[in-house]
Design a protein that fits this description.
Distance between the termini: 34 Å
Strand content: 25-35%
Largest sheet: 7 strands, antiparallel
Oligomer: single chain
Number of helices: 2
Helix content: 10-25%
Strand order of the largest sheet: 1-8-5-10-4-3-2
Shape: globular
Number of strands: 10
Length: about 170
């Protein structure tokens, strides 16, 4: 059966040096806030705005453009943080169905163990797809697809961190 959920995968997205910067900025960062929500009545999670950091807004964005062969502009870039008990809610990152809004999601934590959970679920119509949390991998998907970041299991003592780029494709404009 052919999947109706179109997700592009980018394994080993960052070099060791680049990954070290992202880990230090996010997992080692001190600007986390609690109160991010995916939907109006959703549960709160940790987040860190990254729009002021040129590593994310210029360097990583350029790397995303090269690997996807698309011309994107950033609407927002931030880190999501979840601990045991802080699952997200199914949501869309954009509501426009013009196929110009994309989400690029980067999985930060090094040495993530599969028994820690933390998958991302995608749902379109009756189809559900599970993307496991894999360190230093990234995915690109249509922002109108419903998705949710699942919490880590109680075996995980770390904050589950992803970096989300909310992008607009201006390749054809």
């Amino acid at each position: 059966m052919e999947s109706k959920i179109n997700i592009q995968f980018y394994p080993n997205f960052l070099t060791d040096q680049e990954q070290s910067y992202v880990i230090a900025k996010t997992l080692g960062g001190n600007t986390w806030s609690h109160g991010g929500i995916s939907v109006d009545d959703g549960f709160c999670f940790w987040y860190m705005e990254l729009i002021q950091d040129v590593f994310f807004t210029e360097y990583m964005l350029n790397k995303i453009k090269i690997i996807t062969k698309k011309n994107f502009i950033i609407n927002r870039v931030y880190a999501n943080g979840q601990t045991y008990g802080l699952s997200g809610s199914y949501h869309q990152d954009a509501f426009d169905n013009g196929d110009i809004y994309k989400t690029f999601l980067y999985y930060v934590n090094p040495n993530w163990k599969s028994e820690w959970g933390g998958s991302t679920l995608f749902q379109k119509n009756e189809e559900v797809y599970t993307q496991p949390f894999i360190s230093n991998n990234a995915i690109l998907f249509d922002s109108t697809i419903y998705h949710v970041g699942l919490e880590p299991t109680r075996h995980c003592k770390d904050l589950r961190v992803t970096v989300a780029f909310k992008l607009r494709d201006i390749s054809n404009t």
